[in-house]
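Lab notebook page, bench 4
Experiment: in silico fold of construct C2
Operator: M.H.
Input chain length: 82 residues
Purpose: comparison with the prior construct
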Amino acid sequence: MDSWVWKKGFYCETEEGVWYELFLSDEQRKYYPDTKDLEESMEESNYDSLYLGDFQDYGQITFFVPNGEEEWTFEELTYMFM
């Protein structure tokens, strides 16, 4: 996990894919002071079950990557913040 992008993160593998709960680093949060800024930057993305409801308070981004997904992955999201 890239510490410049993520403060911490968790994942849960299921039969259908992987759920992620990732917490943006303090350095990255400076660029996204509120949820609206992050939503605008992710407007073009197509992450499955993307949830940003806890972003404002905790910097948390939750999403699901179905098995076989090659474009909207954890690695791609990390790259978006680099």
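Observations: Residues 35-41 form the longest helix (7 residues). The chain has a mean pLDDT of 93.
Next step: discuss at group meeting.
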